[in-house]
Amino acid sequence: MSYIDGFVIAVPTSNRQKFIEHANIADSVIMELGATRIVECWGDDVSAGKLTDFRKAVQATEDEIVVFSWIEWPDKATRDAAHAKMVELMNDPIKADPRMDPVKTPMPFDGKRLIFGGFIPLVDLQSK
């Protein structure tokens, strides 16, 4: 069964192109590690809620856009192995991948406000 990683991020509006460039680099590594699909979505119609909403969830400021992203994996085991490999690629000086070096490829957003989680699909409708 497939497995989904979901993300909500506040990205400075001025960093749109930097975000695209960062996503293209990081997402290429993730695809190499077994992801079957990655979608990065720039907020276009993100309404303010009375109690909660995407903007409040990531503490987005007026000069930030909410990005909603997901990664599709063939299964949770592939995802878990990929996560372990990503940690290794970022932290092991011998196996380090320069594409995952936070100095060479800095995140164009505040990673402390990134929300993420892993999800098991319950309903998956597709048009033909």
Walk me through this protein's architecture.
With 128 residues, the chain is α+β, with helices and mostly antiparallel strands. The chain has a single domain, classed as Alpha-Beta Plaits. It is 29% helix and 24% strand. The chain contains three helices and four strands, in the order E-H-E-H-E-H-E.
Which helices and strands occur, and which strands form pairs?
Elements: E1 3-12, H1 16-32, E2 37-42, H2 54-57, E3 64-73, H3 76-91, E4 115-119
Antiparallel strand pairs: 1-3, 1-4, 2-3
What labels would you give this structure?
128 residues; alpha+beta; Alpha-Beta Plaits; 4-stranded antiparallel beta sheet; 3 helices
Order of helices and strands: EHEHEHE
CATH architecture descriptor name:
2-Layer Sandwich
Structural class of the helices, strands and pairings?
alpha+beta
Q: According to CATH, what is the topology? A: Alpha-Beta Plaits
> What low-confidence regions span 5 or more consecutive residues with pLDDT below 50?
none
Outline the biggest β-sheet: 4 strands, antiparallel
Rg computed from alpha carbons, rounded to a whole number of angstroms: 16 Å
CA(first)-CA(last) distance: 20 Å
Q: Per DSSP, what share of the residues sits in E-state strands of 2 or more residues?
A: 15-25%
